[in-house]
Write a structure and sequence with these properties.
This protein has 262 residues and is of the alpha/beta class. 28% of the residues lie in helices and 26% in strands. The protein has a six-stranded mixed beta sheet with strand order 6-7-8-3-9-10, sandwiched between helices. Strands 2-1-4-5 form a four-stranded antiparallel beta sheet, with helices on one face.
């Protein structure tokens, strides 16, 4: 695995038994995440950078929510804490009733491996592996994975299964990354600027895939962006600035991702 994938999914030493916690069952529309008073402070020598300043937040089962804000607003920091890639300086984050802020490294590794799918701005594909093999490296450590070909078919790339990343366009590489993320059937999909490295036409294709996955699989999907247009496809929009949640907007009518343009 690449270093990024190893950090996200953990090495072979992590076992399912390590996540010995009670998770509250959730139905569609129930709160999956509850964050209260979350702060994050980075020490930069003699300077402290306050990335999050007392964030309160809920994410609900089955929803597609957009976290919207400019660079430096705390979006990525918040998503990383929710995903178990980073820890809060203060406050609490509960996932299905389990306090992530008190979890140890082994528990966070298993949490990331079995419950969360990650999609980043950059694809982190292994160049020496085909599209199918890039997906398979995750299915091999999941408990109830999709067949890699089924995951590629879901993102419209079954006919590119034997292609290497260098033989794929940027949008196709991002769709392989999405297939890899959803192939382990995660309860939650966390997307950090998934269209940031793409042109608008290709970005719309990627957003359409994410919207389809949310609708067909019911995967709770949180997508962070600085692009106001993307918020039109969400059920809720959480506006952040200066490390705080400023407003939460319920969207009564979602726009189909394929109709977006910017």
């Amino acid at each position: 695995m690449t270093n990024v994938l190893r950090d996200v999914f953990g090495g072979a030493e992590a076992t399912a038994d390590a996540l010995d916690v009670d998770l509250v069952p959730v139905e569609h529309g129930d709160a999956v995440f509850e964050a209260r008073g979350v702060t994050k402070v980075y020490d930069m020598g003699e300077t402290q950078v306050h990335a999050l300043r007392g964030v309160d937040l809920e994410l609900y089962s089955g929803e597609l929510v957009v976290l919207l804000g400019p660079s430096g607003s705390g979006k990525s920091t918040l998503l990383n804490i929710i995903g178990g890639l980073d820890t809060a300086t203060d406050g609490t984050v509960h996932y299905r009733g389990w306090d992530l802020t008190n979890a140890d490294d082994a528990q966070l590794t298993l949490y990331r491996r079995f419950h969360v799918g990650f999609i980043f701005q950059f694809y982190n594909l292994i160049p020496s592996l085909t599209a199918e093999e890039n997906v398979a490296i995750v299915t091999e450590i999941a408990r109830d994975p999709m067949d890699p070909m089924d995951a590629l078919d879901l993102v419209g790339l079954a006919d590119r299964a034997d292609h290497f990343p260098a033989e794929l366009s940027g949008g196709q590489q991002q769709r392989v990354a999405i297939a890899r993320a959803v192939a382990k059937r995660p309860a939650v999909l966390l997307c950090d600027e998934p269209t940031g490295a793409l042109d608008s036409e290709t970005g719309v294709i990627v957003l359409d895939v994410l919207q389809t996955i949310n609708e067909e699989l019911g995967t709770t999907t949180a997508l962070i962006t600085h692009n106001q247009v993307v918020s039109k496809m969400a059920q809720r929009v959480i506006h952040l600035s200066d490390g705080q949640v400023r407003t939460v907007e319920d969207i009564s009518e979602q726009v189909a991702a394929k109709s977006l343009s910017w």
